[in-house]
Amino acid sequence: MAESPALAPYRWLAAELHGLTANFAQIYFIPSAGIGLLLLAVLMLADRPAALTGLAASVGASLIALVLRLPRDARRQGLFGYNAALTGIAFGALLQPDLTSAVWLSVCVCLTVIASAELSRHRLPALTGPFVAVMALSWAMQPWLGLLPRTAALACDTGTPGFVFCSVGQVVFVAPLVLGLLTWYVLALWNARATVWALAAGVAVWLGIALLAQHWPALAGQAGGIGVNGFLAALGLGVFHRRPGVRLAGAALAGLFCVVLGALLGPLGWPYFTLPFNLAAWALLAVTQGGQPVDPTPPAPQR
User: Between the CA atoms of 115, 119, 122 and 124, what dihedral angle is there, to the nearest 10 degrees?
Assistant: First the structure.
């Protein structure tokens, strides 16, 4: 039966809205509008200003990708907008809203979409590289932009295993433990095995911090970053079909990068965000080969 021409605009709009919400899920390597909508709901519970700026950034990124006529399927999977959505969340969570921050966020959204498109064109995994780049640029421009910080968010408590679930939520600046647990559950709805392996790597990282913190103070000082970057490294390498040993190595390498970058950037007051995850994942993706998928999921998106 032929599709009615009157329904075509509604189908087009529904497909574009799919990409808008998928931007949130792609932060965790998931090309799903439904999972993205659930993650947005968790964000609304945790920090409404961050959720709203993330939503605004996602809308802006989707419009820019549409104007630039970027590939439709990748656009609707959120591949060009997830870095923008994460940037919007970070702005809402870390900075006080004003006209200057809104204008600068718009510039950053444009930059992330263009950077993601260029990396995709060269078949390079963007990961969260564009997000890290625009956040570093924002920190460098602070004296001229006058961006004002919000009250610091709660950190994850390394004293209990709940640190692992808190770290899952902290990827999108969700601090409360119960919402971190809910975030992990939402991710497991899409790909339980890869998410469980990433959680196992997070547990190993937490045990390493607990065992070595007394003898290595720098490790304890970077515990929050290690938790976030270690989980993302393990999850990302799993999505790219690397073996469990490589995923665990990625989490450990990301933790090591956290300690090094913390020592270098900490005295300058510069956060490293998810740069350690990117460095660890890029390194291990370059030196390892992806075999047959370990998890019964669709092929990995080109990130």
Answer: 170
